[in-house]
Amino acid sequence: MNAPDTRRMYSDSIAGYVTSYDPAHDRFGLRTSDGREFTIHLNGFLSSEIVRNLGDGPRDTGEATRDMLAEGRYVFVYGLFYRWDGGERIEARQITFPETSRGNYVFEHPNWWVQQAAEIADFYLRGHFPDGPGKDGRYDWRSFRTRLTLSGTHVPDFTGDDVRQETDTISRLVYGLATAFMLTGEERFLNAAESGTEYLREHMRVADDAEGVVYWYHGIDISEAGQRKVYASEFGDDFDAIPMYEQIYALAGPTQTYRITGDPRILDDIDRTVALFERFFRDEDQGGFFSHLDPITMDPRADSLGRNRSRKNWNSIGDHAPAYLINAYLATGREDFSKLLEETADTIAERFPDEPVSPFVQERFHGDWSADRTWGWQQNRAVVGHNLKIAWNLTRIRALHDKARYSELAERIAELMPAVGSDQQRGGWYDVVERVADPDTGAHHLVWHDRKAWWQQEQAILAYLVLAGVSGDPEHRRLARESAAFYNAFFLDYDDGGVYFNVLANGIPYLVGTERLKGSHSMAGYHALELCYLAAAYTGLLITSAPLTLHFRPQPGAFPDHLLRVAPDLLPYGSVQLARVWIDDEPYEDFDPKQLTVRLPLSSRPLKVRVEIEPADMRLRVSSDFDGKTAHIHCEGVIDREELEKFRRCLTEALSVEPRRVEFHLCKVTEIGRPAINELLFQRAKMGLEVDFVIVGCSLPEVTSALLATDAFLVDEDRTCVTD
């Protein structure tokens, strides 16, 4: 009898770093993230592109593919895999480059995440408010629907008699819209966030004055006959209970809006919802917070709760920090918020680690903190994103409470997760896996599928970005880049807008059932826009040394002592500073650079506040402006090989408007290297003889002489060197 035929052919993807290119055989070597070596064959049926952002057109690189296969460059390859006994061959059909050139990842451009935020926020505005705002610029949230289709329209099944509006879905979208305003300053996003917050307060909020608390409905159903309040949760995991995470996420949108406006009514809602947590969810005996309450008795130990009786979980402990608590602290600086952050971080550091039983944290507990490994769908399983979320948030909280055990656990999670939670062939991060390795294979088996969810990619990107920024560890930065590359290569929907809920292991969108939707109980723009905001902050302020611009709109007298706090996140003290402030588009000087606060002037109307935050140790500050004829390029610091890409980027943007004259303000430049001079010569030649490159003011003699030696520059010593 003949041996069985083991030949197989299938399509798949693989990601890694180019190790070599062999033009004679038209193939290249590729090393995956975990160090395995592969050979990729090319042929005539090949296309390639650079990862593009939402709102951008295709960036085809088909003719340049082979020239771009430089050693060390990270690539995604989709193609045909042929396998047989003793052999394998991979033939590439599509190559995707997340770098424009080696080391220059597209998502590290200062405007990448800002542009993406605007595109995603506009997608949700179009979807939920197809008629746009009213004459007053406000959005009518009565038209909001929890479910939104792939293309950004309301689900037809929910345009009949009854329409569900879930509180948390609205709140998460409000968070995203408020965040988009902070990044872009676009009025429509703030108008929608403020009107959404008002809608939540009017329709979903219950103020119990007798108990001194606020709680939030699960949602409301709207019909022609009126509204039906949905008190207890009707989501499957939490049915007929009041889950803490729903109360937590009801605060997400309003709290972010409060950071911008200072509306005291929102702060009162935050305080009284926290009072709800303290009054009913807190376990006074053994610490922490219970996950569910009986809706009638408000008792976390009621028999009616069934499997949720006397339980604690990741959501009831860990979700406070990212959903509302860090933002509430950033807006107020209050000690009680700080202490609650410390308490939740202490609880996580003490209760959640589970080595040597499992490399994953324990996520569910009984009331006495014994592990619950039989609950519902989770059983003894790990959600990869929750582990990464812990690493991210403990790193943030350590900036406020400097406890070594926070960073020790964060670093340990970051070290363990790639091998047990990531796809080390294709890139990206898995969903739910078994907490204990299979004894036969030694692997932590996937539970239901090998799909990858958008929000778990976010947790990985932010965890490794903030760890890279705080520690300077190149391994963290590598993993952050790989995670961001996978997300931006495969989750952005260029056809309909927004981001996909899930993709298959190879990056192809998975468009079945609720995972086809872009609005649901689980998805509402929150994670995608949180990612845009914090990736922009961490990348620029902690890694690439680029400033971050944020926008605020404080109401008259809203903030105590007229003090607006503008810190972008919990970052190591002294790592960033407030560099510039504008109020109503005019420069403003009454601010504290180190405390990141602005002393607001008295006003009878909301103020338009724009701030620029930058790294405290910024080697090169470079910016440009254009007055219709002359491009002005302002530089301060060192222009060497390390800062060349930043200098090139600013120079390219300044020259793109085709100025008739280019003035370089260099009086605060302490050093200029030969690569930067060569870049200037290269660009000078492209501009033509009719465009003058002029050194303005009195720069250091060695800087001026180095540039004049090229015979490509003029000097205007009579002009003032302006650096602001």
TrEMBL record:
Keywords, sorted A to Z: Isomerase
Domain of life: Bacteria
Record InterPro entries: 6-hairpin_glycosidase_sf (IPR008928), 6hp_glycosidase-like_sf (IPR012341), AGE/CE (IPR010819)
Organism: Kitasatospora cinereorecta
Record protein name field: AGE family epimerase/isomerase
Pfam family, one: GlcNAc_2-epim
Positions of transmembrane segments: none
Record-stated family: Belongs to the N-acylglucosamine 2-epimerase family.
PANTHER family from the UniProt entry: N-ACYLGLUCOSAMINE-2-EPIMERASE (PTHR15108)
